[in-house]
Write a sequence for this structure.
């Protein structure tokens, strides 16, 4: 099921794609928020072209990021592969939706895209054994873990480098019936392919990340885990567009502007 969070310029609602995701033109509207209530169709349908898609989830408490989770990306940054997951937090205020601009802040001269698979948590959970990780995951979406690379290198903590407003585009859909083990992740900058990896290359897989992170902090419905980026990260400048496509989910596309 591909779940969209959308607006038609009044209230925010949810809907599921009708038919084959690649060819869908309609959403079947559902009642309530699928994070908290079972999916129930209202019977109403809306055309995709008549709605504005929003981030499929606004993380209730946190976005948990994982660094250097692909060996080739760790190597391109001149880093060793970590012995344990390298975890950081992004504030939920960094989240924007499909089509929303990524705003380049004045404090940075080098902002990078990072295409990533995002895990959306569906239940309050703590100390989840890896064998039971699937029970606490509601689904998956696409993320861009936008990073001010110069500030990341300069600051001991990554709160700024990863935390500016608009530095966490999510979308276009939350997909509930997806095996995350081996999905193609492709990033395009102005149409040119700059990242092309597979989630099977992750050092720590999704169940391992859920287990590791939940051994430290309680995860809430709507919390999001970013699972790391494949090799090929690079800069974005004003006027460009970044598209991240993950097999089975769809394409997240965002223009780049300068923050004013
Ligand atoms: Mn990342």
């Amino acid at each position: 099921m591909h779940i969209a969070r959308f607006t038609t310029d009044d209230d925010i609602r949810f809907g599921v794609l009708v038919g084959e995701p690649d060819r869908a033109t309609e959403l079947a509207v559902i009642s309530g928020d699928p994070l908290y209530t079972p999916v129930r169709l209202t019977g109403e349908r809306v055309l995709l072209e008549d709605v504005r898609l929003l981030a499929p989830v606004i993380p209730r408490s946190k976005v948990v990021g994982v660094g250097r989770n692909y060996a080739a990306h760790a190597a391109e940054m001149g880093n060793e592969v970590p012995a344990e997951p390298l975890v950081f937090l992004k504030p939920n205020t960094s989240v924007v939706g499909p089509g929303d601009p990524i705003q380049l802040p004045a404090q940075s001269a080098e902002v990078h895209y990072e295409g990533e698979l995002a895990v959306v948590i569906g239940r309050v959970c703590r100390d989840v054994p890896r064998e039971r990780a699937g029970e606490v995951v509601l689904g998956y979406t696409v993320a861009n873990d936008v990073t001010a690379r110069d500030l990341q290198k300069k600051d001991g903590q990554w709160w700024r480098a990863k935390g500016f407003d608009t530095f966490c585009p999510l979308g276009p859909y939350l997909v509930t019936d997806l095996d995350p083990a081996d999905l193609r992740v492709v990033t395009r900058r102005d149409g040119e392919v700059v990242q092309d990896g597979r989630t099977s290359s992750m050092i720590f897989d999704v169940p391992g990340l859920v287990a590791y992170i939940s051994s430290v902090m309680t995860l809430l419905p709507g919390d999001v885990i970013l699972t790391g980026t494949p090799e090929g990260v690079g800069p974005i400048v004003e006027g460009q567009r970044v598209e991240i496509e993950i097999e089975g989910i769809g394409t997240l596309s965002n223009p780049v502007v300068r923050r004013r």
User: Anything to note?
Assistant: The mean pLDDT is 97. The two ends are 38 Å apart (CA to CA). Residues 65, 67, 114, 116, 145, 226, 228-229 surround manganese (II) ion (CB under 6 Å). Residues 95 and 168 are 4 Å apart (CA to CA).
